[in-house]
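does this look right to u?? glutathione version
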Amino acid sequence: MAIGLHGYQYSVYSRIVRLALHEKRVAYDWVEVNPFAQNIPASYLAMHPFTRVPALVHDGFVVYETGAITRYVDEAFEGPKLQSMEPRTRARCNQIMSIVDSYAYWPLVRQVFSHGVFRPRMGLPADESEFRKGLEATPRILSALERTLVEGPYLCGHQLSLADIHLAPIIGYFVLAPEGKTLLWKHLRLRDWWVDFSERNSFVATTPRLPQA
Ligand SMILES: N[C@@H](CCC(=O)N[C@@H](CS)C(=O)NCC(=O)O)C(=O)O
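got this back:
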């Protein structure tokens, strides 16, 4: 059984898949692909025509789009189940994954983290107005996510799910900006969820090595 994960070391979406594989205890080979590079290999573009990462290859079967990959990983491999069969719990988890993709990723990662943390650390030009726009968009997103945390300790109740795995890397980057951490700390249940998740072995083991501030 050969599993290859094509991803970028700093990519939150690649980390989501790494977390899912780690939690399922599935071994894989990592193939580094920088989606922002000018010279993305043609072999990768043949797999992922939208020039994003990640993409998973399992015994010749190629799948891209992170939610599709993590659901596949959960269903194709042994290990703890990361999706509930109960319709409302499952709907809530899918809703959270969709909130992350549709509303959270851009402001929290591409605006706050990229312009407030990543670009300055990489010595790249950063845009303060993008950073501010991201911060302004955030309270509504954090409040919506916090509202899902009614039963805890996980986002969808008593068991770890793909929803936790989908959100954690996004929050992990967001709180590296002190302004982001301050905003998260106003949402106590979400903060507690985050502190717990950040201590999981899978999360620690997949921490990207960012340049120091
Ligand atoms: N819809 C894609 C989004 C993946 C995505 O945006 N990945 C980022 C890295 S975290 C990327 O490849 N960005 C390259 C770009 O924006 O050009 C998925 O779910 O996998």
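The chain has two domains: 3-76, 87-200. idk if thats expected tbh
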